[in-house]
Design a protein that fits this description.
Umud Fragment, subunit A
Length: about 220
């Protein structure tokens, strides 16, 4: 069995497949490790809307002012899960949180805590607001009428708080999510696989065919 394994391992296709599989396992292992360390199923997300951006010169793309105090489209945000009671609700110095939208739990929202409410049974809820949403932008004083229209966000909907933002990196993720990005990535992968596997095989077949033809020619001459 060991001899068979060694013979298979000498095959470059087997080696390439094994390396690809190892890379996939390492990436998945790192992802699950980060989920455990940060205590959330969503340890990293790309910002997809400008609701948290305070526009400068009517631009909110993150490229023109990437290190501003709030979030921009294309930022990669790092999220930490924690007990909702530990979240800072002291606006405007309150935490930016990620949560499932109450009216559509499939959608994730990244907004700042605007106020906190604790019910008689101890359940915590939050009112939220996008920093760049009108009429009063962060860090100016806001009225309850400016809170997000979906109302209270119960503690069970909170994914975690934003602990870091990395400018620009999220654009790669957003590109893969659009109608062009993912097909382009798939096309590139197919091209790479073709170059890595198909072309060498075609070259070998041609070389083998050439050798056979040469052998036949040599035999005919001898006969």
């Amino acid at each position: 069995m060991t001899a068979t394994f060694k013979k298979l391992w000498k095959n470059e296709y087997i080696q390439t497949a094994a390396i690809i599989g190892l890379i996939i396992l390492i990436v998945l292992g790192l992802w699950f490790t980060v989920q455990i360390v940060l205590n959330t199923a969503y340890p990293a997300l790309a910002v997809v809307s400008g609701s948290m951006c305070i526009p400068q010169d009517a631009q909110c793309d993150g490229w023109t002012h990437p290190f501003d105090r709030t979030l921009h489209i294309g930022d990669l945000i790092i999220i930490q899960g924690l007990d909702p009671s530990e979240l800072n609700a002291d606006y405007p110095d309150s935490d930016i949180i990620v949560f499932h939208k109450p009216t559509d739990p499939e959608e994730l929202i990244v907004h700042r805590i605007a106020a906190k409410e604790v019910s008689e049974d101890g359940t915590i809820s939050f009112y939220t607001k996008g920093d760049g949403n009108p009429a009063h932008k962060w860090p100016n004083h806001i009225q309850p009428t400016e809170y997000d229209p979906w109302g209270k966000v119960s503690e069970d909907l909170v994914v975690g708080k934003v602990i870091m933002r990395i400018p620009w990196v999220g654009h790669a993720i957003l590109f893969m999510r659009n109608s062009i990005g993912l097909p382009l990535i798939i096309a590139l992968m197919i091209i790479l696989l073709f170059i890595e596997f198909v072309l060498p095989l075609l070259k070998r077949n041609r070389a083998l065919k050439s050798d056979l033809e040469q052998l036949e020619t040599d035999l005919e001459k001898r006969l």
